[in-house]
Amino acid sequence: MKFEKGVSNMATTLAERMSKFSGSPTSALIAKVAELKQQGKDIISLNVGEPDFGTPDYIKVAGMKAIADNFTKYTPGNGILELRQEIVKKLKQDNGIEYGLNEITTSVGAKQAIASAMMVIAGPGDEVILPIPCWVSYTEMIRLAGATPVFVPVRPDNYELDLKAIEDAITPRTKAIIICTPNNPTGAVYSEESLRKLAELAVKHDFFIVADEIYEKLVYDGQSTSAWRPSPRRSRSAPSQSTDFPRPMP
Predict the structure, then answer these.
(1) CATH 3.10.50.40, domain 107-244, yes or no
(2) Range 143-163 average pLDDT
(3) CA Rg, the chain, in Å?
(4) pLDDT category of residue 129 using cuts at 50, 70 and 90
(5) How far apart are CA 159 and CA 169, in angstroms?
(6) C-alpha to C-alpha distance for 84 and 105, rounded to whole angstroms
(7) What pLDDT, in 10s, does the model give residues 155-194?
(8) Distance (Å, rounded) from C-alpha 143 to C-alpha 149?
(9) 153 compared with 231, residue with greater pLDDT
């Protein structure tokens, strides 16, 4: 390579993948709401999926104690051992599923977990099924991985999964489906029957189920069924403590 004096030889363009997805509308609305509130406007924000109460005191105290105890050094990439042990217990007690420690990892929220799952599951030429309406960020995570989102509407009568439409959308390029139950934005809680039928499709056609279950504790008229239970080895799930017990995330 020939370098010329006074001429920059550094490429200043971004990677091609950056042109294939857009920013988060949720984050844009958070910024807009903050701007309007600063102007003195009386705003009720309905754009963020979080409870309307603060972080419980015992969580705040534990966080402050960890800092005071200098628990601030690097930790294993998949999470500290004690935390993963508690996750194993939680899955067994709350969801009736047994996983080994080597099958558990942690992340900075469910968004990172799902985005990371897309990066290792899907790539250029692959397809990922998305029941819609859905959380806006799923689409961009799929595109960032280089794959193509395939949109399949849910049933209009009860917002349940339309399993016939999902089966019709499956092709040899299908690598995964992303579901959210309890659902954002519809509030639907997918039945155990529909999740079992979806698991059967996943086994038959050899694709992953990526289950976003961050609202699993926000059910008021029954109990939600985890997508892990029908097919624990084919499902990749992302529960989140920051939604059930709000606290600031990095």
Answers:
(1) no
(2) 96
(3) 21
(4) very high
(5) 18
(6) 7
(7) 999 999 999 999 999 999 999 999 999 999 999 999 989 9
(8) 7
(9) 153
What is the percent of the chain where pLDDT is above 70? 84
pLDDT tens per residue across span 6-48: 555 556 888 888 887 787 888 888 899 999 999 999 988 887 7
Q: What is the DSSP string of the chain?
A: ----TT---S--SPPGGGGS----HHHHHHHHHHHHHHTT------SS---SS---HHHHHHHHHHHHTT--S---TT--HHHHHHHHHHHHHHH-----GGG----SSHHHHHHHHHHHH--TT-EEEEEES--HHHHHHHHHTT-EEEEEEPPTTT----HHHHHHH--TTEEEEEEESS-TTT-----HHHHHHHHHHHHHHT-EEEEE-TTTT--SSS----TTTT-TTTEEEE--HHHHS-----
φ/ψ of 38, rounded to 5, equals -65, -25
Amino acid at 114: I
Distance (Å) of CA 216 to CA 13, 65, 77, 224, 225:
42, 28, 25, 6, 8
Q: How far is CA 219 from CA 40, 173, 188, 224, 228, in A?
A: 34, 35, 10, 7, 18
Cα separation, 239 vs 72, in Å, equals 24
Structural tokens at position 137: 């960020």
Alpha carbons 233 and 103: distance in angstroms, whole number: 10
Q: Is 214 exposed, middle or buried (0-12, 13-18, 19+ CB in 10 A)?
A: buried
Distance of alpha carbon 180 from alpha carbon 188, whole angstroms: 9
Residue 248 has pLDDT above 50, yes or no: no
